[in-house]
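One chain given next:
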Amino acid sequence: MGSGSSKPASTPTSQVWTAETPVRFSQGLVDSLQSSPETDSTRTKTLELHIQARVAEELKRLQDRASRDFEELQAKISAAEDLTKKEGKSAGDTLRDLGREAVQNDVKELRKKLEQRKKLTAVDESVEKAKSEVVKCLRENDRRPLDCWKEVENFKNEVRRLEGVWVEKIVR
């Protein structure tokens, strides 16, 4: 049991698999392969050249787009500089004004969103009373919170009732 090695002592011989049925190719296929001047290396070179051409084309397209964007931005910057020179403002003042306008627009949008939200309604008086009873009981029995189970059950029932009323309003 531990005296023998787990690996074979000799190096493995090569395996040759033979097909059960003979593989035959048509004479036309064999002739076309033999007469073709294309080899694996020429096919590889052709594919590599094709890939390089596509990459170069895509790179040129990206460079053209980047240069157009750069020219547009330069035109905008020069227009903004001309405007600030005419108004007599410095570049910092212009940036502060742009920042102030952006902040004011953001504040307006947030106010609109807040106005669109529904307002919270006041909590039902019975639920508020049950809640205050639970809080009162827990403060009185801070060492024994399990003694407040009646108040907790009463609160759960009130919340369940309020949820039922809410569901009825939504379903109608």
Remarks:
- DSSP finds five helices and no strands in the chain.
- The helical segments are 27-35, 40-87, 91-116, 125-140, 149-171.
- The mean pLDDT is 83.
- Residues 40-87 form the longest helix (48 residues).
